[in-house]
Amino acid sequence: MSETNVKISDVTANSAVLGFAGLALAAIILGLQGMGLITDAIVVVSMSIFIGGFAQTFAGLQLWRKGNNFAATAFTAFSLFWFSFAYILITPYGEPAGAASLAWYLLVWGIFATGLTVGSLKLGSKSLIVVLILLDLTFFSTTVAFFGINLSILPGVITLIMGLAALYTSLSIILNECGYKLPN
Fold this sequence. Notes:
- By secondary structure, the protein is mostly helical.
- The chain has six helices and no strands.
- Helix content is 72%, strand content 0%.
- Helix 1 runs antiparallel to helix 2 (41-65) and helix 1 (16-34) runs antiparallel to helix 6 (154-177).
- The longest helix has 25 residues, at 41-65.
């Protein structure tokens, strides 16, 4: 019996594009709400669930299949952030979450995000590092605000900038596949 080498090539799309797009679009809306430009919470809830949550879940699961533990964990974990954040906002049971509880919730996510930021430093993608540093600043500035220190619209501005950086990261991957040469 002879042995035959079979080469299987991965022809699936780069699902990080979808993950960054989900983060970007949900964060941009959340940032605009934090700046007072969007006043309807349902817009944030909808984007959190259907864009941030589902897009990052799909991206994370696809990247898991590809063996990319870092991206799979990041996208899947942050998809769960969006789902849980939306649930906190809609509060179907009892009273809305208090400011201190939200601060602790965001602090835990900030610590997790910082761990991913440290890991990203070894991956070499400047746009990923920028997104994660801005995500850290988003979580920590919002944490401080919920602990009662008035930062005005600063957390919203940081969130908006982070969303725009994630949008750049998503689009740069797509446009580079189309033949453009954007830094990534």
